[in-house]
Amino acid sequence: MNKTIYSRQSECVRKSLLTLRTKAGLTQRQLAGKLDRERSLVGRLELGERRLDMVEFFWLCRACGADPVKEAGTLMRQLQAA
């Protein structure tokens, strides 16, 4: 297994996170506030400088008002196609 940081799949994850946040109409700072985390965390996630685990993905979806199950399914299809 190769490192994932510069993979096409990693790019899919970054785009998905950005899309979730922008669809919710949130700034990075607002999303960070909903997650009770620092703004730089959201920026690092969107830039691919920090990995995201499944629990964090769940919390992020909920903070954006999105269905985590639906979003995970969409993301998995994108990863498979990449």
Structural summary, described in words:
The protein has 82 residues and is an all-alpha fold. The protein has a single domain (8-81), classed as 434 Repressor (Amino-terminal Domain) (Orthogonal Bundle). Helix content is 70%, strand content 0%. The chain contains five helices and no strands. Helix 1 (8-23) packs antiparallel against helix 5, helix 2 (28-35) packs across helix 3 and helix 4 packs across helix 5 (68-81). The protein is globular.
The assigned structural class equals: mainly alpha
CATH class: Mainly Alpha
Low-confidence stretches: none
- Tally of strands: 0
Defining key terms:
mainly alpha
Provide a compact summary of the structure.
The chain has 82 residues and is mainly α. It has five helices and no strands. It has a single domain (8-81), classed as Orthogonal Bundle (434 Repressor (Amino-terminal Domain)).
